[in-house]
Structure prediction request, 664 residues.
Amino acid sequence: MAPILDITNLRKNYGATEILKDINVSIEPGDFLVLVGPSGCGKSTLLNCIAGLEPISGGQIEIGGRDMTRVSPKDRDIAMVFQSYALYPTMTVAKNITFGMKVRGADAATQERKLKEVAAQLQIEALLDRRPGQLSGGQRQRVAMGRALVRDPKLFLFDEPLSNLDAKLRVEMRTEIKKLHHNLGATMVYVTHDQIEAMTLATKIVVMKGGVVQQIGTPAEIYNKPANLFVADFMGSPAMNLIPARAQPNGEGTRIEMACGGSAPIVLKDSRATGLPQDVILGVRPEDIAEAGFRAGEGVQEAACLIDMVEPAGADTYVVSNLGGKQVTARLHAETRAQPGQMLDLAFDLSKVSYFSPATGERLN
Amino acid sequence: MTDATLTPAAAANSRNWSHFALRWTLFTLLGLFALFYLMPLFVMITTSLKSLEEIRTGSLIAFPREVTFDAWRTAWSEACTGIQCEGLRPFFWNSVVIAVPAVAISTMLGAANGYVIAQWRFRGANLIFSLMLFGCFIPFQVVLLPMARMLGLMGLAGSIPGLIFVHVIYGIGFTTLFFRNFYVTIPQDLVKAAKVDGAGFFRIFWSIFLPLSLPIIVVTVIWQFTQIWNDFLFGVSFSQAGTQPVTVALNNIVNSTTGVKEYNVDMAAAIIAALPTLLVYAVAGKYFIRGLTAGSVKG
Prediction:
């Protein structure tokens, strides 16, 4: 299938400052693309470039197979939902939703029909005569979505649409957006700084930092095989443990040695890793460290560690220990015997670990 | 022994008393200030209702013994402004014909300028805005000669359109400032959303920004109307017989009479000349304060 959005070599400068550097992204119809990164990474700017609200300094943007690089926003066949909702304050909800159609000269009957459809879909029929000022945050959010839905565009753009909502509503709306995407089969581009939102919504994630794409992939790829230290640290909560270690070729595989605070170094043997440099950073997710005996399989290696802290969290218990000079969090089952200040045998699942170069931060395996 | 043994009711009572005393001191002071400021108006009104005879014999602050509206009629339609003796009436209409279009045009231009400067940022927008602000602070006297030359070249010297032109030019700085400061509080996302919706520059201005602007329009209209109606310098410099505004005519009534000074007519004429601005304040005054303090728009 032809990509519905194809960005090639996009660059964006403000004067001498480069905001976006050589961005290449392409998505298929029905994809849910999430642009994620810390604030100031250029994700919102990239979205504005796709919308045509910001001119680009180089490269090309194709939407639906047409070159849209210099086309004005209204002719790009897109709809956009803003963080501030950007509802027109003096218009009623109904007028807000139909404004786009009115501007484009749709006849009154069509406007009325589409308005009814969208209002029913979003359950905002009761609000149509109110003004934005009389609505709650969640209701405004729905109206903003309605304004986008009614346009039935090739591409939906969302600019952090949930960040002004409280935590509970945010989770609800997140589910609703996912449902909407599923039901409409629409193509969406979604900007967020919240990696959980990114993981739950996306079919494809673009992780950005400092205007540079760090990694593009499915949520599973991003989570399991982060391309560099930044992605490893940014995606996932609690974050991936990044432990400085020494690697030595040993027979078929590699011997990994990590300093352990207060006791002898921990030595693990990864039978699958080869060709690692002497100094590496071992990345292991908290859920890939279990209490010995609770995790089995190829690549699981056990070692005794001194436990510094135990944090029960209901479903799981997090224990913190010190390896390679770093705090390392492990996610154990709730009934663990772990006690602070005592040794505990931990099982490391080496089939899931990542190795990074301390010098470049890039993934090694 | 005193405070500690006071019953709660007594304590509340004493608190009430000090509150009461403070309130009354405040009101008395405010009342005195108000009286002080109203004094000239009082003298003007009473004097305008007296006959010349009574003015000569009575006290300045006494109420009229016999109320007569002769002075008002004279001021409106008979008083002499130089050689012409038609009262203020023709000049009053001159002022209306100057002020209404000048206010309307300068307000519209200010709204459009403010919209562009606040919401359609372009290279040098800040510089242009600073220059316009600078225009607000240029004293009138400085531009008199160049403006006279300009009006002459444009063939508008001494005409009412010429005066309208001068007031519009001079007003743009202020009106732009008002609208720009109002529009910068409106989130830029609104323009972006409207652009994606397919609306263009003028559509966005007309459908989204103007309906929001009522408070600042009121402020601008009051400000501009007061400035233009009360203007004397431009009026006296750029008009000729027949196109003079009411302020100039008032001056002529007061200064060109010979013989006995008709204080009652002068006072009546002054009040007539000031009435429209008073009226505008009375009708729209509360919107003026509201508009000046109007903040960002919740979308």
User: Anything to note?
Assistant: The two ends of chain B are 60 Å apart (CA to CA). The interface with chain A takes residues 187, 189-190, 192-200, 203, 207-208, 211-212, 297-299 of chain B (CB under 8 Å). Confidence is low (pLDDT under 50) at residues 295-299 of chain B.
